[in-house]
């Protein structure tokens, strides 16, 4: 069974361009929306995303809306904890496709890591 997990050095979720997420006001509190918008760099990427390492520089202290946790997704999106795994997988696939492409290395790595892609000896 596919199981969601964050795949290191992907960073697709760090592409925060608000034009890609027109419904931000529907699920973020006004203070969270202000924080979100303050994190968007000129290129649409989070200012905390280190493009060289492809990792978040504030991961341990990242905002609530950057966390894939049952209580956060239930509060923000109305996703029941039992539905979180499938919802998170679908969200990641959509975001990775939008940022990198549907057959990108990032998409292939994600699918392999969560258990929905082909398993091979090739280190993606």
UniProtKB/TrEMBL annotation:
Pfam families, per this entry? Answer: CxxCxxCC
Can you tell which superkingdom this protein's organism belongs to? Bacteria
Q: List the InterPro entries hit by this protein, alphabetically.
A: Puta_zinc/iron-chelating_dom
Could you identify this protein by its name?
YkgJ family cysteine cluster protein
Organism encoding this protein? Stenomitos frigidus AS-A4
